[in-house]
């Protein structure tokens, strides 16, 4: 069983669902999460908010976050995850924001990535300093996000293997 299948099984066992909010991964995370058979029981939907203003208008990221720390930040990742969770009715929101390249953004270098998870017990974020091609950064971000949610599920639901 691969990591995505493990995550799907863990969500099923926990009676939980997930929704995504993506920027730099541009829908790849949603596509990855829906690969396993039966994913329709655990995946609620996804939001691809590539444009900065959509992070605010669609996901509810506060303008103050966008203006003070920017969209390439832990605060934005947390707000995106919370927005996806709230707007979809999912148990968990999983968000990706960062710089896949080829150019820096907001003064942050290529490979600067934040992953946010929002769940019943609050929000967490992780920073990734990735390297490689644009496609590799996007892929590695998606795999990290899967691992983050799987780890969280295992901690919150001890019986989940």
Structure, briefly:
This protein is α/β, with parallel strands linked by helices and 161 residues long. Helices cover 42% and strands 21% of the residues. It contains six helices and five strands.
**Coarse structural class:** alpha/beta
Helical fraction equals 40-55%
How would you state the average pLDDT, rounded?
96
Tell me the β content. Answer: 15-25%
Number of distinct helices: 6
Largest sheet: 5 strands, mixed
* Strands side by side in the biggest sheet: 2-1-3-4-5
State the distance separating the first and last CA atoms: 12 Å
Order of helices and strands: HEHEHHHEEEH
What descriptors fit this protein?
161 residues, alpha/beta, five-stranded mixed beta sheet, globular
Question: How is the topology of this model organized?
Answer:
Blueprint: H1 3-14, E1 18-22, H2 28-33, E2 43-48, H3 52-57, H4 63-68, H5 74-88, E3 92-98, E4 112-119, E5 122-129, H6 134-156
Helix pairs in contact: 1-6
Please characterize this protein's 3D structure.
Helix 1 packs parallel to helix 6. The chain has about 160 residues and is an alpha/beta fold. It is about 40% helix and about 20% strand. The mean pLDDT is about 95.
């Amino acid at each position: 069983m691969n990591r995505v299948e493990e995550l799907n099984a863990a969500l099923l066992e926990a009676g939980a669902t997930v929704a995504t909010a993506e920027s730099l991964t541009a829908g790849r995370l949603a596509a990855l999460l829906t690969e396993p058979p039966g994913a329709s029981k655990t995946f609620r939907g996804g939001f691809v908010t590539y444009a900065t203003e959509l992070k605010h208008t669609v996901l509810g990221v506060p303008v103050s976050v966008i203006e003070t720390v920017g969209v390439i930040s832990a605060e934005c990742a947390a707000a995106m995850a919370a927005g996806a969770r709230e707007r979809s009715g999912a148990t968990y929101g999983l968000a990706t924001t960062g710089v896949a390249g080829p150019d820096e953004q907001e003064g942050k270098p290529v490979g600067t990535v934040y992953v946010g998870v929002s769940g019943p017990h609050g929000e967490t974020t992780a920073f990734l300093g990735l390297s490689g091609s644009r496609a590799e950064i996007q892929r590695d971000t998606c795999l990290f996000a899967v691992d983050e949610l799987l780890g969280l599920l295992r901690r919150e639901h001890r019986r989940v293997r």
